[in-house]
Amino acid sequence: MTVSTEGMKVNWGSRTLRACVELLSSMRFSISLLTVICIASVIGTVLKQQEPLGNYVNQFGPFWAQVFSLASLNTVYSAWWFLLILAFLVVSTSLCIARNTPKILADFSQLKEDVREQSLKAFGHRAQAALAESPEAAARRIGQTLVQSGWKVKLQQRNAGWMVAAKKGAVNKLGYIAAHSAIVLICIGGLLDGDMIVRAQMLLNGKSTYTGGGLIADVPAAHRLSERNPTFRANLLVSEGTQSSTAILNQPGGVLLQELPFAVELKKFSVEYYSTGMPKLFASDIIIHDKASGEKTPARVEVNHPANYKGVEIYQSSFDDGGSSVTLKAIPMSAASKAFEIQGTIGGISALTNGQGPGAEQLTLEYTALRLINVENFAGSNGGVSGSGADVRKVDLHQAIETRLGAANKTVTQKQLRNVGPSISYKLRDAAGQAREFQNYMLPVKMDDSADNPAMFLMGVRENPVDAFQYLRIPADPESSTATFVRLRAALADPAQRELAVKRYARLAVGSDRPELARQLSESASRALALFAGAEAVPVAGASAAKVKPVAGLQAISDFMEANVPEAERSRAGEVLVRILNGVLFELTTMTREQAGLKPLPQDEKTQAFMSQMVLSLSDAPHYPAPMAFELKDFKQVQASVFQVARAPGKKIVYLGCAFLILGVFGMLYIRERRLWVWLAPQKHTPEGSNDDSTGSGHAMHSVSESAGKSQATMALSTNRKTMDGDKEFEMLKTKLLQAPL
């Protein structure tokens, strides 16, 4: 029997209704629906689901973000059109099964023993042989042999002989029923475990999504789902030492709160890391508090090892900060800012005021994340060796091939991973609501293996979440702090401190016996230091004196040289001016350290490297887009677990569907249905002397008689797939069944 791809034909209803039933129950319609579901699933896999709208705007732009939202491509698996397609697929596949199952079951027990003996000659696998047995004896022998080989056999006696009909591999047709039933079961399970029931409650019970903020306890009942909700999949965040019984269902445009019949208390959270900084294992030791009985049940939840309580699965989804307390120290980046310490909690906010008086700037400090482990790649170019690029005079083909062959971990770029310690992430939001994101490391980071180069405090900033962080590098002083940088920033902003440093530099460089040279050097040093500090405006070349550029750092000195020094003399004058600037800054550093009661820096290569980096840091500091940077001084970590709690009645249905699918595919692909017929008729004998040819106009008459005890066998084999195994099986059956030749 061949399974039909056409739909069910009904004799009732209008012509349009009959056409709709035929289309809906056709296999081509089911395949079309499956194709659409596959395409939608690819979109749902490639495009991150249920992300905030701002993430799509940043990544794809406002136009495509709006398209994704209108077409529900950001929530494919809960979109109304996806659920509707699943429902149509269930109906269509069910009608296909209902149409073909009676035919399959009827054909399952039929051996088609009524086939005509002349029809056997049209089969591709056929054979004839003369047997030294009577038709009845041969039929019983052949039937018994087939039964012993697992064939289902039926013998039919006819007036002209015996027909042996046999069948094997009938389970192949049951594979069709099993595979299509699997599609129905999996889709039903998916619909039960999807958002269909939640949306039905929102439509029928007046539930709506919540878009506000505040405490969970203050959310009205209109945004809460009952403990008796038959199906849900929500997230539950629990901090160490606390418990929670309300999970959150993310919905388009807001959230719903799902009440649980129990509360989850997190006793301890454990996490282990790989050398790359990726989590290796995270697990939670919890206590489940039953609301009805008050019973306490301890459990351990790990990835791929959930806990089950009253039909609700508790999965370890992720982990987060549970409200760690941090102490931050402000590093002033502007003249109006002052150094201070502030304490906060991750997830909380603090109000700040930059400056004094009515024009003071109002800021909001948002503590976003605390990370204890930060593994970064410090490999330079060419596998960690710093250089200027490839040597074009040398082409090592052997090495080039070796880097691309062999184990999968062979890469052209080698990694040098290092844990650089804790970091703090925060946002500074101005009065207009505009915010920048910052990430600062607690410990100074050694950027290379040189013993002379100082370690750096890295202060990262970015305007948008999709951008990479840009870092201000502040060299760590001998006390492994940023105090020298802070003191130098303050001294540069103080004209008296700058003047004192210039005098010290001139006295050490020239001495007291050459007052005119000392005066000229002091003027040059004072001008260079004022430009570097941003205290002196730089006129724009070719413009009026009133038109100035408010710049500082090395850029200000460069602009001054372009405006005041002829191009031919700029290189030499620039070297002299930078040398003077470095000397004055060193004296300013020495002076500020003496004022702080610290030893002056020794004049060696290590100090020279430190001062070179300090000059660059002081030059970049005016471009820092915030009046202050915050350095992590101390913290007390509190971990939190993110659980996924799910009541999934459709899970068992999906498992049953998967089992049916495996059986169905195995039955259809690996089991061949074969039908065998052997027609046994008494052998007829032609006497000697007879002639089969006719000559002239006369006809020769043949005297034909039956040979007693002998038979003529005609065998044919039919299979649903033509394979080499079928050819071999037929040859084996021909030898085995027709083994008694005349």
Automatic annotation (TrEMBL):
The keyword Membrane applies. GO terms for biological process: cytochrome complex assembly. The keyword Chloroplast does not apply. Its main location: membrane. Keywords: Cytochrome c-type biogenesis, Membrane, Transmembrane, Transmembrane helix. GO terms for cellular component: membrane. It is found in: Membrane. Residues 688-697, 704-721 have a biased composition (Polar residues). Residues 687-721 are annotated as: Disordered. Residues 27-731 form the ResB-like domain. Pfam families: ResB. The chain crosses the membrane at residues 27-47, 79-98, 174-192, 653-671. It is a multi-pass membrane protein. This is Cytochrome c biogenesis protein ResB.
